[in-house]
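User: My instructor asked us to take a sequence, write out its structure as tokens, and then describe one feature of it. I'm not sure where to start. Here is the sequence I was given:
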Amino acid sequence: MNWTVYLSGEIHTDWRDQIKQGTEKLGLPITYTSAVTDHDASDAAGDHLGKNDINFWRDHQSSKVNGIRTKTLIEKCDVAVVRFGDKYKQWNAAFDAGCCAALGKPYITLHDESIIHPLKEVDAAAMAWARTPEQVVETLRYVISA
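Assistant: Let's start with the prediction itself. The structure tokens for your sequence are:
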């Protein structure tokens, strides 16, 4: 079976690449999907639908266009990895985790110990909590190869 893994969350570090490289070295049959990770492109996703001078409406319009991709990819994934960094609040990642939980999609959270408390509900619904991309790779290896 080829697995589809959706990578959600923080876009400022190379955690996605670390997971991809780790699972490729193991030869795991995984196709990765993700939200758009180019911040400017994501913010402008709905600009083609009309100019909005008020930021709320621009964000609202773009979030709906981005939501088409996100909703579709989460629904099609076998498992998601949701990364929370410590520098920015990833509300979108928390929303993605909630969507996974509502859809019954298993997900792994990836974050350090300093933000355990604010993520307690998100972690409670997760199937695993990892602190490093290597732990995610090992979890995927076990789940796919066992």
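For the description part of your assignment, you could build on this observation: The first helix runs from residue 15 to 25. Try explaining in your own words what that tells you about the chain.
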